[in-house]
Amino acid sequence: MKRITFKNKFGYMMGDVANGLTFGMSAGFLLAFYTDALGITAAAAGTLFLIARIWDAVNDPMMGAFTDRMFKKRMLKNKGKKVDKFRPYLLKGCWLVVAASILMFIAPNSLSGAQKLIWAYATYIAWGMAYTFVNIPYGSLAAVMTQDPVERSALAVARGIGGMIGNIAPRILVPLVLAGFADNLSKGYLIAMAIFGVMAVISYIVAYLTVEENIEHKINESDQNEKVSFKESFSVLVKNRPFVAVSIASIAMLFGFMINSAMTLYYFKENLNALKLMAITGVTGILPTLILAPFMSKIVKKFGVKKTVSISSLISAVIYGTLLILPDNPYTYITVTFFAGIFMTIPNMLVWGMVSDCIDYNQYLCGKRQEGVIYGSYSFVRKMGQAFAGFMGGVGLSIIGYVPNAASQTASVLFGIKFLIVGLPAIGMFIAFLSYQFIWNLTPEKQVEVVQTINS
Hints:
Elements: H1 6-38, H2 42-77, H3 87-104, H4 113-145, H5 149-180, H6 185-210, H7 230-237, H8 241-271, H9 278-292, H10 296-303, H11 305-325, H12 330-366, H13 371-400, H14 411-438, H15 444-454
Helix pairs in contact: 1-3, 1-4, 1-5, 1-6, 1-8, 2-4, 2-13, 3-4, 3-6, 4-12, 4-13, 5-6, 5-9, 5-12, 8-12, 8-13, 8-14, 9-12, 10-11, 11-12, 11-14, 12-13, 12-15, 13-14
């Protein structure tokens, strides 16, 4: 089996840099853009996130099945030739993602309140579908690049680094841009998104040119008319304990991470009155990944995947919970969340390699690989976590009584913001600990058996 190279790892990393740039803008700033620039209420924005993400989540398995089906057609059409299953989508879909993301941060002043809400729904859903068109094939790439557990860990680390860079870059630049456009927030958001859009297109193209699909699967003539049964696929997935564990943990972790990202702007603006210092969280947010990357494979080799992700999730939950009772101070928050972020980063870095393990295990259970369907199903549960986080962010602000653009917020509102930004991540990471500790059952010995069986 061909070994993956540094160029392949770099290309895979750049794919998630591109994903992270638009996703980071959506996760970290779209709620604030809607409430403070477009003029949508927080509750309406939260409902929008919930509805759009539920549709987006349903759309993910459909996209996974689509990639599997189109691959069969291309294989049968190009017999005897090497056909890439997932790479082409990076090139075909990059401009769709960027165009939709820019539209998402345009605030037409001439529209009425109802029309602005319709505009927000249309552009956000369009971005979500374009993102799915690229992200499902991109995420499935790891499973066809290598079957070696160590190489998959390396790819997971590369993706973790790329995603962290893409998600953190907006947190560094956007507060600085907004500070310069304090009198015209709409323009500031749009300029920032346009900059990241150009960077995303370049990153997607680099990824397309440098990744390689090394695991080839034969398609027989009898497979041409085979239909993908979602009922059958789901019945197998619920028996796939590693998949169930990763799914529950990912929903919980993403819920906490997304809430934290969405509330950071509010926390630094309202609780700390230190919006410019928010940029520091961008730097401290990426440091854990850079620190852990060289050692992650060794950590997994020594302690195993299960112990590594479960214990790190528990420690992260405890640290976030401790921050809830500490006094509000920007430097305290930055320091403590840095250490919480180290332990939160570990399972987030390794999860992509674990998903590839789940794909192998699924083939072990039912004899069908279906990378697109499996990854699409996993993406479905991630989107559900994002949907709940977006809904809770918007509705949570309404529940605690947040008043947009107010000179100051009440003490109860400030505590509510603090609970949203650190209390909910603590709960999410604790749920992730329970899932990894008591549901994940793929031991190193079992993993060897799985790979030998599906390759025999």
